[in-house]
């Protein structure tokens, strides 16, 4: 357990495992036998279909019928890919089904017994059924804004001189770099994906739409190479300058690439873009396509002129879903009462601040304070534990954060915002090819009683998170109307983000004449507190970023201390203990 914050009692690494943890590790390993059995081939048509889908989702040449979904590295990303592909083959699978039936053999039995394996296969020329997004091969001049895009654009128009929603990725190229080749690859990618050519209106109009432009050449400011040798300190200053410079949302493409020479065949790459056009998953797709194009050009290969179909927001689908969505949100948030006010003893926010003030970027340097924690799987077998208990790593981390909030705020009913991918309604390869901003920020509620067991809290967080997927496109203003809570969005000043898409450092591929190193990501956060959990290959990394001018620092320190103690004191493993007992231990 590595914690880089200097909070009292939290800066030391656990050198050895306790006897209890060693016993638990042995137990978890022992209970993973089913996931590590010798390969056994599919035994019927349904199992064969599932095996093919899983092999593609996990990028494996073969997967046996008894291999466990969680042991294979199953997460929300892979579940979306599996359900999307399954729908094309006539298999009605939901994310919850993968968790309850985590092997091909078990899932096939469930599908047979429920009749979900008898749906008609959807042909490639299918008629469009009601869906959240409509994909069209024919590019249009304009597209409807998603609710999240409209919200972002609203704040951009309210504070036009502030660099709101600016994302930035920094990395280094070690090896041969050809600027002309990179320029060609970048132009190709921008021409290929309509979402990268999106420009947004000067005023918020009733149609709530944006336009797509065409480019035969890159605007000069989009790509710049500085061959003068720079220090890494210079690079950091340039990156900061690019973030604070902002991006004019009316002038596509809403991105800039800056390449700086840092000596010895090394180059720093700074990619600055506006969050309006790309979510995190889409950034991954674009980077992978960019480096693939560069590699092909490096090998003297031609690039295809194909334009990728672009998903269009479908308002009629969401209007048809209104009654069901309204019932869901009213049930989820029934009886919730926000804390009586910011600035109270147990509140995280300062009294004079409002949610709207969180969107101001004119505060002095050092306003953000990052708390970092790394939980390696050897000491903290979160994936194996999740597999054993039939839950998800996301549920474990969300529950741990909820426990910390319960203790800090003095009540066992917390509401926070969380990010949904928006891709659950996409089919087949649409999941992997859709480039744009499809995410939504929605409320998630974590509630418990003194007698609730920790395992019940895990299960509740898992179910709440999965249930959000069906209604992941609900506009927050519509939810507020349904509930009669006009200030609901102001209660979402704490954001929980669970990420498991691959980072740019994984894009090193055959034919690329340089390696990609030292990846760093930065986004201009506008929430007072953001808890980001990143599920990586060898560990789970946690970054809690707070805006110091908006929070009560002592309460935030308590929150972080409680969160770390959940793992440091092995409380997360005590699934049979009551939440009340766990909270008492947190206070010791």
Could you walk me through the main structural features you see in this protein, from its secondary elements to its overall organization?
A seven-stranded mixed sheet has the order 1-11-17-16-14-12-13, with helices on one face. Strands 7-8-9-4-15 form a five-stranded mixed sheet, with helices on one face. α13 (393-409) crosses α18. The chain has three domains: 35-114, Non-ribosomal Peptide Synthetase Peptidyl Carrier Protein, Chain A; 142-299, Chloramphenicol acetyltransferase-like domain (Chloramphenicol Acetyltransferase, 2-Layer Sandwich), CATH 3.30.559.10; 369-493 and 528-586, Chloramphenicol Acetyltransferase. Mean pLDDT is 82; it is low at 6-17, 20-36, 119-128 and 352-366. The chain has 588 residues and is an alpha+beta fold. The chain has 19 helices and 17 strands.
Question: In summary, what is this structure?
Answer:
The protein contains 19 helices and 17 strands. The chain has 588 residues and is α+β, with helices and mostly antiparallel strands.
Key descriptive features of the protein:
single chain; 588 residues; alpha+beta; Non-ribosomal Peptide Synthetase Peptidyl Carrier Protein, Chain A; Chloramphenicol Acetyltransferase; 3 domains; 36% helix; globular
Please write the CATH class name of the largest domain: Alpha Beta
Number of domains: 3
Shape: globular
Based on secondary structure, the structural category is: alpha+beta
- Arrangement of strands in the largest sheet: 1-11-17-16-14-12-13
How helix-rich are the residues, as a percent range? 25-40%
By DSSP (H or I, 4+ residues per run), the number of helices equals: 19
Count the beta strands.
17
The N- and C-terminal alpha carbons lie at a distance of 20 Å
**Percentage beta strand:** 15-25%
Q: CATH superfamily name of the largest domain?
A: Nonribosomal peptide synthetase, condensation domain
Which residues sit in consecutive blocks of at least 5 with pLDDT less than 50? 6-17, 20-36, 119-128, 352-366
User: What summary fits the major beta sheet?
Assistant: 7 strands, mixed
